[in-house]
Write a structure and sequence with these properties.
This protein is mainly beta. Strand 4 and strand 5 form a beta hairpin. The protein has one domain. The protein is built from one helix and 20 strands. The two termini are 33 Å apart.
Amino acid sequence: MKPLDLLTLAITLTCALTISGCTGATESTPTTNTGSTTTDTVIPNSLNQAAYIGGTVYDFGFNSIPNIPFINAPADTDFSRSAMLHDGTTYRLYFFKQASHDTIYQFGYNAATQKYEFGFNSIPELKLTGIPTDADTNRFAMLHDGTTYRLYMKRQNDNTVMYQFGYNSTSGNYEFGFNSIATLFITLAPNDADLNRWAVLHDGSTYRLYTGKTGEIDTLYQFGFNAASNDYEWGFSSIPQLQVTNMPTDSVKTNFTMLHNGSNYRFYYPSNK
């Protein structure tokens, strides 16, 4: 059974996420966190791809191009901070700019070359505005819900709190709280959840968050967004635990990205293949 099959009630979550009323941090530019530079020992140049095969398993290469290069990255790309999404038309890959807390680079997947190319069918450089002063800009995640491009960061010193940004096409920026619940909470997480490794996606019905499991690098915990509580709850409308299998040894497992393309749930590790 796919995660989508677990949803038993039709919930219009896109509308729910645009409701105001959640309180969060003040909107101002952070002064204590200016972003990180790449800290992984290996600088990646491609992505190893797995897909959900059913049950509790994501398997490397299933219904997928096993390894996808990304090219033409600016010299100051921070490969340790990445996110992905599919917007119904284009697969998109994002990296932060080195030593920046508010600038991301955008890559689009070119089916003709089977590569993610910087600026392909994309705005090459995007800005984040209104970042809370206590936002942790060392990790981020993104999704598209059919209406809005969304970006998420955790709160410094409390990774059960997420800040949400929406893309404003008028300004061309990702703005904190735009068309969004500004602050979201992660609840019921198992004690061994690795909340520093995380990703999000939207599968057409449910907003989903995934975290690592401490001590089991290829195990994921799955959370679903509960519109009644405005929280991401472990196991809500979800298979609580998932396994990623057969990923190559060249995978850089310090973090992962995920997306849903309308048909398939996909999982990625960076690689230097």
